[in-house]
Amino acid sequence: MDVLSSRVLIHPKDLDVSTAFYRDTLGLAIDKEFPGGTVFFAGNGSIEIVGTGKTGPTPDVALWLQVRDLAAALAELAAKGLEPVREARREPWGLDEAWIADPDGTRIVLVEVPREHPLRTDPR
Prior knowledge:
Layout: E1 8-10, H1 15-25, E2 30-34, E3 37-42, E4 45-50, E5 62-66, H2 70-79, E6 86-90, E7 96-101, E8 107-112
Parallel strand pairs: 1-4, 5-8
Antiparallel strand pairs: 2-3, 3-4, 6-7, 7-8
């Protein structure tokens, strides 16, 4: 299989509310807009908010978004009125993680890779 690109599709309860959350609260840049959906840049991937969901989120699925500075990202979100579902902490696997949720309750894991972690490839 030769994969050329990828994206996560999210079917929200309210398209306008979720689109505003990913655009305005998270501050993700828009890649594409079309009738009934918006695709956002998310690092090396994309998140597409499209249509209307029927079943809602599941705790078995989460978005994983790596940020450069977790404390700064949480402070920025708090200034916009978004509090974490779970505060930041160092996980046993060595990553610093905090959890937030989108308007439908989809878990979003915000991750900072500490300087000393073997996954860290960017020294900034």
